[in-house]
Amino acid sequence: EAVVTAADTLQHDIDEARTNLQDAQTALAELPDTDLAREDVLRVREELAEKRTVLVERQSVFTGLKRSAEERARRLADIERELASWSDRSGGAAQRIEDLEQRIKQIRVELEDLAQRPGEIKAKREELMGLIETSEQKRKDAADRLAEAESALTQADRNLREAEAELSKAREQRVRVEGAVEQGKQACASIAERVREKLDCVPDKLADVAEFDAAAALPEQDAVERKVERLMTERDTMGPVNLRAEDEAREMGEQIETLENERADLVEAIEKLRRGINELNREGRERLLTSFREVDKHFQELFVRLFGGGQAHLKLIEAEDPLESGLEILASPPGKRMQVLSLLSGGEQALTATALLFAVFMTNPAPICVLDEVDAPLDDANVDRFCTLLEEISAAGTTRFLVITHHRMTMARMERLFGVTMSEKGVSQLVSVNLEQAEKFNESP
User: Fold this and answer.
1) How far apart are CA 116 and CA 114, in angstroms?
2) Residue 350: what are its φ and ψ, rounded to 5°?
3) Adjacent-strand bridge partners of 359
4) Element spanning 28, H or E
5) Sequence-distant (≥ 6) Cβ neighbours of residue 288 within 8 angstroms
6) For 200-244, where are the alpha helices, taking DSSP H only?
7) CA angle (314 as vertex; 311, 319 as ends), nearest 5
8) Contacts of 303 (CB under 8 A, 6+ apart)
């Protein structure tokens, strides 16, 4: 608006100047005196020159104002576009605010639902714990039934083996009987031949020859033959009468009595040995469980100290009897879930194994412990925790540690160093350094 006003003013000035010029020219023409007219012309020219100068200045100002007006028009257009953009953004922001408010309402509803979830989770956990107890009881019952079934299966297998053995014996007996029958037939034929040779008659006439009563029962053939053979053998082998037979029988009876007493003593010793084994097993189970709980306690404490957090524990597996159970190590380093030792990284496995080793030493200290490259897979922070724990256990005075290492931090924390150096080519030399004494020498003036 200022530019337009200035332009109007300048145009008015220009029109006025033109009017003045025409008036001046008209007046000049009307002037009769040329000199005066010349002077007026000069004066008018001067005024015209001044007016032209003013006009040029006004045109320059007008041009500048026009450019400024164009720039301001462009700026106004940019401002209108920006205003439209901001209007659109304002609408979007309002919609976004509305969406956020709706989201806040939904989150509040979800928070209310989540606030009720702990109770539901607790009830569900109690229900699951009940189901776990029921399942554990069912598992125990199933294990008992399985043990009974296995015992019954073992007994059935034993009965089957016994039946098979009896069947085998029966088959062998059948074969023997068949062989005996065949031998009997052969023996009958042989006897008939002998009867013919010695008595000159057939076997059917032997009763008449022997004047044997047919109504009497016949003795068993094998018994008769054995008796005959025995009598013949006794007749042939009969020697002098044994006068020490009674003494020998008495000595044999004493030996039998001694053997029976020794057998009774042996049975009693076996029973005592079994009772002793059972007592040792019972005491071994108690001591094992006591030591296991103590080692597990120390292991949990040392694991937390070495890892700076987390949790771990030991577990007996694979058998109901502790003396036959296996050992499983469960560990959960900071930021990880509980898992077995084999699923951890190399450094975590080494640190966990170190915690277990120290837990055993704290439960049952030994006079000396050798650690070979235990700190090799550990980083500096874990090596520092390892050395600190080693110093605390060593300070108790129950165990002396011999550490084989190449780690600078571990060597710096030891009391005495032993190493091998090569002062000359091919010549090795043992070198020892007492670090505590060296520190004292260093501190002394």
Assistant:
1) 5
2) -65, -45
3) none
4) helix 2-30
5) 322, 323
6) 206-210, 221-237
7) 150
8) 310, 311, 312, 331, 352, 355
pLDDT in tens, the chain (445 residues): 778 888 888 888 888 888 888 887 787 677 656 666 677 777 777 887 888 888 888 888 888 888 888 888 888 888 888 888 888 888 888 888 888 888 888 888 888 887 877 888 888 888 888 888 888 888 888 888 888 888 888 888 888 888 888 888 888 888 888 888 888 888 778 877 777 776 677 767 766 666 666 666 666 777 777 776 776 677 667 666 566 777 878 888 888 888 888 888 998 889 899 888 888 888 888 888 888 888 888 888 888 888 888 888 888 887 677 777 788 888 888 888 888 888 888 888 888 888 888 888 788 878 888 888 888 888 888 888 888 888 887 877 677 888 888 888 888 888 888 888 887 788 888 888 887 777 776 666 5
- Site of tokens 């032993």: 418
What letter represents residue 286's amino acid?
Answer: E
- Evaluate whether 279 touches 289 at the Cβ level (below 8 Å): no
Interstrand relation of 311-317 and 326-332 (parallel, antiparallel or unpaired): antiparallel
Element (DSSP H or E) covering residue 329: strand 326-332
- Let me know: does 386 contact 351? Beta carbons within 8 Å: yes
What is the rounded CA–CA span in Å between residue 272 and residue 121?
A: 57
Residue carrying structure tokens 């088959």: 171
Count of alpha carbons within 13 Å of 82, Cβ hemisphere only? 6
Query: In this structure, how many other beta carbons lie within 10 angstroms of the beta carbon of residue 175?
Result: 10
Closest by CA position to 380, among listed 348, 414, 403, 408: 408
Sign of the C-alpha dihedral computed for residues 390, 393, 397 and 402 taken in this order? negative
In the numeric block, which tokens belong to residue 121? 């989770």
Amino acid at 147: A
Please give the Cα distance from 288 to 280 (Å, whole number): 12
